[in-house]
Amino acid sequence: MFAYYLQLGLRSLRKNPMLTALMVMAIGFGVAASMTTYAVYRATSRDPIPQKSSVLFNTQIDAFGPENLENGEPPPALSYTDATAILRAHKATHQAIVYPVNVSVIPEDPSHLPMRQTAYANGADMFGMFDMPFIQGRAWTRDDDEKHASVAVITRDLNDKVFNGGQSVGKQLNLDGRLFTIVGVMDNWNPQPLFFDAPNTGGFVDEGATVYIPFTRAIDLQLGTNGNNNCVKEPEQGWDGYLRSECIWLALWTQLDSKSEVDAYRSYLNGYAAEQQRAGRWSWAPNVKVRNVVDWLDVQKVVPKESTISLVVSLGFLAICLVNTVGLLLAKFMRRAQEIGVRRALGASRATIYAQFLIEAGAVGIAGGVLGLILTGLGMLGTSLVFPSDIAHLATLDPTLIFLTLLVSIAATVIAAFYPTWRAAQVQPAWQLKSN
Question: Which residues belong to any copy of the MacB-like periplasmic core domain (predicted)?
Answer without folding.
Answer: 20-221
